[in-house]
Amino acid sequence: MLHIYNTLSRTKELFTPTEPGHVRMYVCGMTVYDFCHLGHARMLVGFDVVRRWLLASGYRVRYVRNITDIDDKIIRRAVQSGRKIGEVTSFFIDAMHADERALSVEPPDFEPRATQHVPEMVSIIKRLEANGLAYQSDDGDVNYSVRGFKGYGKLSGKSLDDLRAGERVAVASGKRDPLDFVLWKSAKADEPPESKWESPYGVGRPGWHIECSAMSRSLLGLPLDIHGGGPDLKFPHHENEIAQTEGAFGGKLANIWMHCGPLMVDAEKMSKSLGNFRTIRDTVSVASSLSDTVADYEANPREAEMLRFFIVRNHYRSIQNYTPDNLRDAQNALDRLYHTLHNVPAAPVDIDWASPDAQRFRDAMDDDFNTPEAVAVLFDLSSQANRTSSAKTSGLLKALGGTIGLLQTGPGLYLKSSTRYLGHDAQVQELPEERILALIQARLEAKRTRNFTEADHIRAQLRDAGIELEDKPGGTTQWRRA
């Protein structure tokens, strides 16, 4: 039975959705003002694994992941670039979708944009005002009265006296308390017209936190079965969501709160504000460099799955460290699994969950999505398949990998793809495919003319470049990168 660590209760809990067999999951998505970095990849992949496992477990899943398409950073990007806000956000949404495709992240069932739900946000603000939890200050902003909500701090575990305004919460002179946060921002004269909406509180735009309260309730109802997001959202964003939603409607916002761990670089969290981020596209694209004016790109299938594997083989709640060596280690490890699938072609199998290996895999995933243990099962199956040459065992390896979005690329395509991420004991693959094919053709011609010395020389040349050949009946030759 599935148990999930609940950030709110700080313990693993038996997962019991409100409606039996149906999971309603909301995850806070991207603020689309720039390209996604590897920290975002961890969130995207992490909750994609959660959704895939819920489906594999027989649940129906209604998955909503929002897009923040109105925000101070977006407005600044639009003004600086001389583009409309919608042009900026549409471009970076397209770029995000390209990243998702590269990482085999399946699209959510709904991907609402904040600008599509402004009326619902205003409605919630009006309820909060009626409940004595919102007030309009002299500067025109509408703020939430934090000390009026008795449960504030229950998610982050901090007392009101310990709390400070969050990263995106500006302390304005019109606030009654420094911890109060903005629900509706009064428009400024120099802001673009497309950043302004009419409201009972004057022309302006919604604050950041209110959008998720509106979209989650509108698309999923209350309470949510699972509410998730990145590690930096616990406070203030999710704390404020709870205050808004529960302050307006009573009850509780979500039964289970999930937060993935941070991706670190030299003991610092990877983030754009720190300038230590590496984008997904630069990590896995076929092109050595990409233009900032192009949203879509072609991903290297071997490197892209390596990045997903790098994320999945760590527990979603753990602190994960990014280094080039860690990527190389992940590439070599994933390559070993694909070598098994190449050497022992997988037979189609239906997973028998009563079998020992499948049961161990399931027990791991049911224990708060313990992907490190699940991946260990995959390597055990790989060893078994290599030892026994069992197509059924190889098939189970592939099928179980598929439940977490791995091992679904054809081994031939995967192993023919070059990679920049190899361990120190492996040779850098520099030969392009056209050169490899030309050498294979030259070897076949040498063999035809019985020049076996030249044929052996070409084979050795390819082997030194990390290319393995396999001669097949009928005079054909298959190749792969070692």
What's the layout of helices and strands?
Layout: E1 3-6, E2 11-14, E3 22-27, H1 38-56, E4 60-65, H2 72-81, H3 85-102, H4 118-130, E5 134-136, E6 142-144, E7 181-186, E8 204-206, H5 208-220, E9 224-229, H6 234-249, E10 254-259, E11 263-265, E12 268-269, H7 280-284, H8 301-312, E13 320-321, H9 324-343, H10 356-366, H11 371-388, H12 391-402, H13 411-416, H14 433-448, H15 452-464, E14 467-472, E15 476-481
Quick gist of this model?
The chain has 15 helices and 15 strands. It has 482 residues and is α/β, with parallel strands linked by helices.
The average pLDDT is 92
Helix content: 40-55%
How many helix segments?
Answer: 15
Order of helices and strands: EEEHEHHHEEEEHEHEEEHHEHHHHHHHEE
Structural class: alpha/beta
Strand percentage, roughly?
5-15%
Strand order of the largest sheet: 4-3-9-10
Give the uncertain stretches in residue-range form.
165-170, 424-428
Radius of gyration, in Å, reads 26 Å
* Strand count: 15
Q: Give the biggest beta sheet.
A: 4 strands, parallel
> How far is the first residue's CA from the last residue's CA?
40 Å
Shape: elongated
Keywords:
single chain, 482 residues, alpha/beta, four-stranded parallel sheet, four-stranded antiparallel sheet, 15 helices, 15 strands, 42% helix, 14% strand
